[in-house]
């Protein structure tokens, strides 16, 4: 290894599907249909599902939540209110401050993001956390309360 490279963990499609399955199970148990998006650390979409009954426009917000969490490396919904509109405008609407986006962190490295939308912000975050908890059981991922 040189000063020009660094070891890098990658979220695989298999990992994304495990996250998606766990999120769907939690949303089903809550009886709250959700849109669920999972991206890698470069904000590339790896998995997406709109559950039957989930709000159509929540497709976009779920993806933007996942992208925001992956790129900012923190949960969405905590940005100062006076900054949220400016960040959204500066990024062409790509950055959101809506709750429900969580970074996927394994061994201290952000390897992606999960975004959930169609319920309340707290429901969205609960579903995302359930997915991370399932990954944590397998790969030591971090959850956010």
TrEMBL record:
It comes from the Bacteria. PANTHER family: PROTEIN GLCG, SLR1406 PROTEIN. This is Glcg protein. The lineage of its organism: Bacteria, Pseudomonadati, Pseudomonadota, Betaproteobacteria, Burkholderiales.
């Amino acid at each position: 290894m040189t000063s020009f490279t660094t070891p890098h963990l990658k979220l695989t499609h298999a990992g994304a599907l495990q996250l998606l399955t766990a999120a769907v199970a939690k949303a089903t148990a809550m009886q709250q249909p959700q849109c669920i998006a999972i991206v890698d650390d470069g904000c590339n979409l790896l998995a997406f599902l709109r559950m039957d009954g989930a709000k159509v426009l929540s497709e976009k917000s779920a993806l933007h939540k996942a992208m925001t969490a992956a790129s900012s490396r923190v949960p969405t919904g905590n940005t100062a209110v006076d900054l949220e509109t400016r960040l959204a405008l500066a990024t062409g609407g790509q950055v959101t401050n809506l709750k429900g986006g969580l970074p996927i962190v394994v061994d201290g490295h952000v390897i992606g993001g999960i975004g959930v939308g169609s319920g309340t912000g707290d429901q969205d975050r609960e579903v995302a956390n359930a997915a991370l908890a399932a990954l944590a059981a397998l790969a030591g991922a971090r959850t956010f309360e």
